[in-house]
Amino acid sequence: MYNNNRTQQGQQGGGKNRFYQRRKICRFCVDKDLNIDYKTPKALRQFITERGKIIPRRITGTCAKHQRQLTVAVKQSRQIALLPFVGRPMY
Amino acid sequence: MRKYETVFIADPDLQDKVRIDLYEKARNIINKEGGILTGFDEWGNKKLAYEIKKKLRGNYVCITYGGSGSLVKELERNFRLNDGVLKFMTILLSDDVTAEQLEKEVQDAQDAQDESKKAAETVKEPVKADKPEEETSVEAEKVEETEVKTE
């Protein structure tokens, strides 16, 4: 039973309970031209789930600074109805 | 001077005249309070991500301008009172901008527009220039033929 609990926890963490994790690169740090703008919901759509929730950065691989900017942009976009608060985005 | 950007959503069912009056009002407020309008971008009718006041579509407009905080207050007050504006959002872009920088931006935007218009016109011109050249060459050939015959 003890073993079962441990594997379940590992799966809940997205299978990242290993020694070696693939280092993901932040796509905004690599490509300086990509601008995080609340006016482009199409670009922001990659960082929200089907339900409209913001994806955590350990899954997308963005760095902390850009994740903060992304969060602000998504929330601004939701304010003016370019992205939904809940539900599928239409793009 | 501070640089602001305001996105507001106008009622899509408004008549054209009323809508244009609304835009003019916004421009007038900016000019009256001593602000500088650098950009007026109308995105047109777009589908909203959620219902606002029971409406599913809205007319988006994005304006960038320079001014003081009191200008923003006045603008927002007018948007709040107006029934034709469904939603608005103002964002501070930068804190320290001089009037000359803003005017330069306006000028640059104007130049870019003029250049794109000129580029569109020059594309049309070569097409027209080819035709008269063809006609003159045909005429020249005819003149040569007649000259030979007369000789």
Explain how this protein is built:
The complex is a heterodimer of chains A (91) and B (151). Chain A has 91 residues and is mainly alpha-helical. Chain A has one domain (23-91): 30s Ribosomal Protein S18 (Irregular). Chain A has five helices and no strands. Chain A is globular, with a radius of gyration of 16 Å. The model of chain A is unreliable at 7-14 (pLDDT under 50). Chain B is an alpha+beta fold. Chain B has a domain at 2-97: Ribosomal protein S6/Translation elongation factor EF1B (Alpha-Beta Plaits). Chain B has a four-stranded antiparallel beta sheet with strand order 2-3-1-4. In chain B, a hairpin with a 2-residue loop joins strand 2 (36-52) and strand 3 (55-67). Chain B starts with a strand and ends with a helix. The relative contact order of chain B is 0.18.
Low-confidence runs of chain B: none
Please provide the count of β strands of chain B. Answer: 4
Q: Can you tell me the number of structural domains of chain A? A: 1
Strand order of the largest sheet of chain B: 2-3-1-4
| Overall pLDDT confidence of chain A | 79
Instruction: Please estimate the helix content of chain A.
Output: 40-55%
CATH architecture of chain A: Irregular
Q: How much helical structure, as a percent, in the residues of chain B?
A: 40-55%
Count of individual beta strands of chain A = 0
Question: What portion of the residues of chain B fall into strands of 2 or more residues?
Answer: 25-35%
The protein's oligomeric status is heterodimer
What's the CATH class of chain A, please?
Answer: Few Secondary Structures
What labels would you give this structure?
A: about 90 residues; mainly alpha; 30s Ribosomal Protein S18; B: about 150 residues; Alpha-Beta Plaits; four-stranded antiparallel beta sheet; 4 strands; globular
